[in-house]
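Practice problem 4.
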């Protein structure tokens, strides 16, 4: 689920907090970094299980309508297409999901009003009306509908975002990414899936990815002064402390990767931090960072400071 770019983002956020803090506690900061990453999977489980909570609420609404004192014909014979959606049924039978919900203690028990509001927003939508009226009862149609309502009525729901921000301080930065992963899960879920269909794992390779995160965090701190001097030598018309802090941080991380991560190609490191500058720094940062890093890499190569293992990694 987490690619290397997103791991770099989490390290960048942790480093920013570390350098801004008056108390420099490396061990505590490292633990918080790993916890913030691990909690992303909790958020993923919350959002996957939310779909089933909405389905269950819809079922309860239908049952309550039947039990009214004077039920209508529609109350007694409702359109059950939504609650019998084939993707919902698959997901409800997924033993991997149920096991993880129990393991991580994920529950919506305390949020009945939020579930109700989200369902009402879905039920009043044009997509919902068209879906119930459609004669297409295929699995593809059912799954496409769930993907549509997630994109349009769940992913950006403000009260949901507010709840997650209250539950975990890290999730405000992660929810957009996790929403993409939930949509991808829905989109790629096969019709032939059995009850043990796997969900996305947090790491592609847990051991390697955790090692990358920890080493990038530690080494960027360890070589901070050296890297700052490298940057200062290439920005003599600027005082380093007047350059945007995020620009300096991204360059320090890039230098750390280029010089101290022997299995990552130089070009990959440079491209990654240029992309991060577009996302997290100023409009002019891309050109500025690119120019400084290009000059530094030329010097590093001339001085034979870059030690890479494997063909093509110097490029």
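Answer key:
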């Amino acid at each position: 689920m987490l690619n290397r770019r997103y791991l770099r983002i989490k390290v960048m956020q942790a480093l920013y907090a570390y350098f801004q803090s008056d108390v420099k506690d490396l061990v505590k900061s490292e633990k918080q970094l790993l916890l913030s990453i691990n909690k992303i999977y909790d958020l993923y489980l919350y959002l996957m299980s939310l779909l089933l909570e909405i389905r269950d609420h819809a079922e309860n609404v239908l049952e309550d309508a039947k039990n009214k004192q004077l039920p209508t014909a529609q109350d007694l014979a409702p359109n059950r297409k939504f609650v019998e959606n084939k993707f919902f049924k698959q997901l409800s039978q997924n033993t991997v999901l149920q096991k993880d919900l129990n393991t991580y203690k994920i529950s919506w028990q305390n949020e009945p009003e939020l579930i109700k509001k989200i369902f009402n927003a879905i039920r009043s939508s044009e997509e919902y009306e068209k879906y119930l009226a459609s004669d297409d009862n295929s699995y593809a149609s059912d799954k496409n509908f769930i993907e549509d309502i997630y994109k349009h009525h769940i992913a950006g729901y403000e009260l949901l975002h507010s709840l997650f921000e209250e539950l975990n301080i890290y999730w405000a930065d992660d929810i957009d990414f996790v929403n993409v992963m939930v949509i991808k899960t829905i989109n790629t879920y096969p019709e032939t899936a059995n009850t043990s269909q796997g969900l996305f794992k947090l790491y592609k390779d847990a051991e390697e990815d955790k090692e990358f995160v920890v080493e990038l965090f530690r080494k960027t701190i360890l070589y901070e002064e050296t890297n700052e001097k490298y940057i200062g030598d290439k920005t003599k018309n600027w005082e380093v402390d007047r350059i945007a802090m995020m620009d300096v941080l991204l360059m320090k991380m890039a230098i750390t990767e280029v010089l101290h991560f022997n299995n990552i190609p130089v070009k990959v490191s440079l491209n990654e931090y240029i992309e991060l500058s577009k996302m997290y720094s100023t409009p002019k940062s891309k050109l500025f960072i690119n120019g400084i890093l290009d000059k530094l890499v030329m010097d590093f190569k001339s001085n034979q400071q870059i030690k890479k293992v494997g063909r093509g990694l110097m490029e």
